[in-house]
From TrEMBL:
Keyword annotations of the record: Cell membrane, Membrane, Transmembrane, Transmembrane helix, Transport
InterPro entries for the chain: BP-dependent_transpt_permease, MetI-like, MetI-like_sf, OppC_N
Residues in ABC transmembrane type-1 domain copies: 99-299
Listed name of the protein: ABC transporter permease
Length: 313
């Protein structure tokens, strides 16, 4: 009697043959958006190798080079492709370093939102009762304020408590905490709704009968079945976090001047835009808009893929 063994496909093979890869390769907008996003990430990671100068190195900055126009314009300098800012820093280099800071803050802030929102949403949906009421009312109170208002209030409290100098030293960590705390209710409400639907299913009842603890049921069994909406929200929230950081830096409540992010670059250039130095604001603004746009396009594509009723191929 002949026995044939069927080779089990590897994880990579299963991924290549998955629906998400199939739909991704069919959608030109998604592929283009992902390519642009990957370009931004790669340029940000390798900023020290790509950028002509280090905007953090004060010895390499000459104030006499301030407000030089892009190299292709009259009075431009070939050393500075996109011109210089008010301190003589190369705009191209500051955009690369600023993108890295903006992306780092955005991704870490979303990570904190995930941790808080998923934990609170799971607890509220699974345990229900008074725990659910308390946590959701707390989320509702926070949602009644705008994200930017919460971020401004928390940022002002941190600045007052720590002082401007200490706040500047830990500005990145502070912004991650501020933006993360301001946005977690979005995750909590979505996860809670998914948990309420999942916890009534047979596999949850079977896990309870087998004597599994609540934490194991919540994180090992229910949470994996709630990942689709979490993925979609995370993509959009990265864009929102980057915009929040840019807005706070523009208002002077974000990163200090010696740590340029896209928002602080736009803020610096805004003071000089009417004097003719439009490039200080224009180029960081274009990069910020492009980055947020491609992330939002990827988020919309993910939403459609995970919702068959919306996806049209």
């Amino acid at each position: 009697m002949n026995t044939t063994t069927v080779a089990t496909p590897s994880r990579w093979e299963r991924f290549k043959n998955s629906d998400i890869v199939y739909y991704f390769l069919k959608d030109k907008v998604a592929m283009f958006s992902f390519a642009i996003f990957l370009t931004f990430v790669t340029a940000s990671v390798f900023a020290p190798l790509i950028s002509p100068t280090d905007p953090y190195d004060l010895s390499a900055i000459d104030i006499m080079d301030s407000e030089l126009p892009p190299s292709w314009m009259e009075e431009g300098d070939s050393r500075f492709l996109l011109g210089t800012d008010d301190q003589g820093r190369d705009i191209f280099s500051t955009i690369l370093y600023g993108s890295r800071l903006s992306l780092t803050i955005g991704l870490l802030a979303v990570g904190l939102q995930l941790l808080l929102g998923v934990t609170i949403g799971l607890s509220a949906g699974y345990f229900g009762g008074r725990i659910d009421s308390f946590l959701m009312r707390f989320a509702d109170v926070q949602l009644s304020f705008s994200t930017m208002m919460v971020a401004i209030i928390v940022s002002a409290i941190f600045r007052t408590a720590l002082g401007a100098e200490l706040f500047s030293q830990y500005a990145v960590i502070m912004l991650v905490v501020i933006i993360g705390v301001a946005e977690w209710p979005q995750y909590a409400r979505t996860v809670r709704a998914s948990v309420l639907a999942e916890k009534k299913k047979e596999y949850v009842e079977a896990a309870r009968v087998m004597g599994f603890r609540s934490l194991r049921i919540m994180f090992r069994h229910i949470l994996p079945n709630c990942l689709s909406p979490i993925l979609v929200i995370s993509t959009v929230q990265v864009a929102n976090a980057i915009m929040s950081e840019a807005a706070l830096s523009f208002l002077g409540l974000g990163l200090p001047v010696d740590q340029p992010s896209l928002g602080s670059l736009i803020s610096i250039g805004f003071n000089y835009i009417f004097s003719g130095s439009w490039w200080i604001t224009a180029f960081p603004g274009i990069v910020l808009i492009s980055l947020v746009l491609v992330i939002n396009l990827l988020g919309d594509w993910l939403r459609d893929v995970f919702n068959p009723k919306l996806y049209k191929g």
